[in-house]
Amino acid sequence: MSNHFQQGFFTAFITILLSWNAFAQGPIKGVNFSFQGRLRSFVELADNFDHECGYESQKDLKEYYSNLRNRYKEIELFALYLEPSFVANHINSVQQVDLEAIKAGKAEGFTALDYLLYEAKFDRKLVQKVSAQLKLKSKELQGLLVKHTLSEQDVANALRQSMLLQMGVGLENLDCRYSKRGAKDVAISLNAMQEAVSILGTSEEQQMFRDGINKAVKSLEKRGSDFNAAFYSNEYLAPLYAMLLGME
User: Fold this and answer.
1) Is the pTM of the predicted complex or chain greater than 0.70?
2) How far apart (Å, rounded) are the C-alpha atoms in residues 36 and 40?
3) Fewest beta carbons less than 10 Å away: which of 142, 152, 195, 232?
4) How far is Cα 4 from Cα 223, in angstroms, rounded to an integer?
């Protein structure tokens, strides 16, 4: 692992420690603090990824891409809720792409990188072009998001929106058609909800929700070749969504 990515993980660790202190001062303040910290970590990793694209092999870049995408999925819960158009246009979308669309600048961010790293013949210059653009757009996204302060209603709405997103886009690999890592994305997104739910409902309801998340994630980790997305959604995600609707 390069020094750049080691620095990124160190930043994430410090963010978690500081978040615990913020949560002690109140759940909604803690949620906002944690989100902004993870956002900074994502921007830093985007910058690091762009640096690695200059010389790392395609195999290693897939690993760095995975790390960066993991970090994005930790912030997608609120990023997509607060700035849906910007995220869809520049960071991550369900758009079907091809090489010509990427060369013409009609596909950006993870959408383009997923295709370039997992489907197309490796073209370092084009990967660098897309990664440099993602670095800039991640900073623009940060500039937009720091203007927001999440309210309790924002958190509730974002949680419900995200759960619906996992039931459709995530499980069907619609935003990662070539890496086909949708199940991993869903697991990260579900875990990201555990912290945010601390501002909703009673402590008993919160614990029931977290227990449901843990069961859902464990099921994904144990999935086999016969994994059925529709069954999984009905068995695990639909009940979690119903819980969210009942929590105020």
Assistant:
1) yes
2) 6
3) 152
4) 33
